[in-house]
Amino acid sequence: MKAVIGVFVPVLLPLVYAQTFHWGPCPTPMVQPNFELNKYLGKWYEIEKLPASFERGKCIEANYVVRPDKTIQVLNIQTYKGKVRTAEGTAVGQDIREPAKLGVSFSYFTPYAPYWVLSTDYNSVALLYSCTDVLRLFHVDYAWILARMRILPAETVYHAKEIFSRDNIDVSRMVPTDQQGCDGPI
Fold it and tell me: Is 29 a member of any domain?
């Protein structure tokens, strides 16, 4: 076991730099019961997140649209170093019995990563979670608080973090996303 850790940790640590990782397997949080994808579609703004190397900009938003083939287009937009950057991915349902458990991929060459809707009221706030086990030795996780507007009241953010914590998701490293000055020129 020590040999496995000794081989993989130095290789994987650069990959998880700026991500949040913890020892042990992923937690298994509850997801949104009776999730309705059609209500969830549309534009969401990122309010706070666990650090992610692919999200270093400001004015981060995600747009979800159903394609003709019934997959979901995920279009993420952010402003980074004064330039608007986009990333297009695909989301698919992974379990018909739990429609809030989606899988998302941003490349034809990568497998679908878990993308779970833990909670949403569809009109103002959504809590998303993704976690990947690495040999059940440790896990890398991501969590997002999204909103239909660029700013949420502090008490709503606090309540969102309580929901994550209730499901054993450590959000102590969550950082706010800068949503100031986003609707005008870059």
Answer: yes
* Structural domain range at position 107: 2-176
pLDDT tens-digit readout, 5-32: 444 444 444 444 446 777 888 989 999 9
User: Is residue 184 domain-resident?
Assistant: no
Q: What is the pTM of this model?
A: 0.86
Q: Using CB atoms within 10 Å of the CB of residue 125, give its burial: 0 to 12 exposed, 13 to 18 middle, 19+ buried.
A: buried
Q: ∠ CA 34-38-39 to the nearest 5 degrees? A: 70
Residue 64's SS3 state is strand
- In the chain, DSSP assigns E strands to 20-23, 42-49, 58-66, 72-80, 83-93, 101-105, 113-120, 125-134, 138-147, 175-176
Domain count of the fold of the chain: 1
Contact 50, 142 (CB under 8 A): yes
d(CA 83, CA 106): 20
Residue 68 CB coordination number (10 Å)? 5
Contact call for residues 138 and 128 (beta carbons, < 8 A): no
